[in-house]
């Protein structure tokens, strides 16, 4: 896997997972709420907070044709333009949000949705760009973002394998300083049984870059499971209170829940480790609870050992129990006392 970092923070299988708090439209049109979300993200221990940079007019058209109207899901019946008008983060908020993140030592970046957003964000000093799931097919946009020489994170969403390949080629062609891919099921919310987390390992094997998860399921169990499958990045929506509503509230975590997500994902990663079969702990306190061969009655010197003389018991300071057939019938080299751990020096050949 290639080396990859955002603002000096190394990201990959050997590093603690990189957790991104996605603000999206959960500011509900209020700058103070957006700033409070940045504060909350910092308090959870997340590594980064992410915005989305677009206007309704840069992402869609104000047209009421059937294909511009949403059918099903949390935004059923709304036009694209109406939804994005509500959910967009005003561009004149960005500087204040970036500054608030810097106060907390929190990385802040965004998803640009057109070339003007790429340039705007570059002017704010973003450390990376995120390419959203539905924009993965927009290879000119990817090349534009990559041309700034920064790392990219790209969500795969509903893209097929060939589209992912083209997106990766565009990132390389544009000159990105490395990129990561996020497995993603583009449903809002996504059902756990649809998540196909083995895709994380498949993407890693196919593309040799860090792989993560953009998680739209309810709760945090799927994100934790993704860490166990090798995810290096977790992106999850954050809201102050689901009861406050908003475009993405239904599938977002509240701050306390998000902190649990961060803690659990990092604990899951810490628990992985390499395979180990070296009986760690034997010889210390745990030796008391292992079985081994002990002398269970006094035995005279020169006597042949029988099953009445030696048994497998706790603790584990004597010969391993599998040696019992080998020692039975052997002659003792000295007198043995009840309660002694059996050793090879105590029996003849």
Automatic annotation (TrEMBL):
PROSITE patterns from the UniProt entry: AFP_LIKE
InterPro entries assigned to the protein according to its UniProt record, in alphabetical order: AFP_Neu5c_C_sf, Aldolase_TIM, PseI-like, PseI/NeuA/B-like_N, Pseudaminic_synth_PseI, SAF, SAF_AFP_Neu5Ac, SAF_PseI/NeuA/NeuB
A biological-process GO annotation: carbohydrate biosynthetic process
Molecular function GO labels: N-acylneuraminate-9-phosphate synthase activity
Coiled coil: none
Top-level taxon of origin: Bacteria
AFP-like domain boundaries: 292-349
Record-given protein name: N-acetylneuraminate synthase
Gene source species: Jannaschia faecimaris
């Amino acid at each position: 896997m290639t080396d990859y970092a955002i603002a000096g923070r190394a990201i990959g299988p050997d590093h603690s997972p990189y957790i991104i708090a996605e603000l999206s439209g959960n500011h509900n049109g209020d700058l103070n709420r957006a700033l409070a979300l940045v504060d909350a993200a910092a308090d959870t221990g997340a590594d980064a907070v992410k915005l989305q940079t677009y206007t309704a007019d840069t992402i869609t058209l104000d047209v009421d044709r059937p294909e511009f109207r949403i059918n099903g899901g949390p935004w059923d019946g709304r036009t694209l333009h109406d939804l994005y008008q509500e959910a967009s983060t005003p561009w004149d908020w960005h500087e204040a949000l970036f500054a608030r993140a810097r106060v907390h030592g929190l990385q802040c970046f965004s998803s640009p949705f057109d070339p003007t957003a790429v340039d705007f964000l570059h002017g704010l000093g973003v450390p990376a760009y995120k390419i959203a799931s539905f924009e993965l097919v927009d290879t000119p946009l990817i090349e534009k973002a990559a041309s700034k020489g920064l790392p990219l994170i790209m969500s795969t969403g509903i893209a097929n394998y060939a589209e992912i390949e083209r997106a990766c080629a565009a990132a390389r062609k544009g000159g990105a300083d490395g990129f990561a891919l996020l497995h993603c099921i583009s449903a809002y919310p996504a059902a756990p049984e649809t998540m196909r987390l083995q895709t994380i390992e498949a993407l890693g094997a196919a593309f040799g870059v860090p792989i993560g998860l953009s998680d739209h399921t309810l709760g945090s169990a799927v994100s934790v499971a993704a860490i166990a499958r090798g995810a290096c990045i977790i992106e999850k929506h954050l809201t102050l209170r689901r009861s406050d509503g908003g475009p993405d509230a239904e599938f977002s975590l509240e701050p306390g829940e998000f902190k649990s997500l961060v803690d659990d994902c990092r604990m899951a990663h810490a628990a992985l480790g390499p395979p180990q079969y070296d009986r760690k702990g034997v010889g210390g306190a745990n030796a008391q609870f292992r079985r081994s061969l002990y002398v269970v009655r006094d035995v005279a010197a020169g006597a042949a050992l029988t099953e009445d003389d030696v048994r497998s018991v706790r603790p584990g300071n004597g010969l391993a129990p599998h040696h019992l057939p080998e020692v039975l019938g052997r002659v003792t080299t000295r007198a043995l006392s009840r309660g002694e751990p059996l050793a090879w020096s105590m029996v003849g050949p």
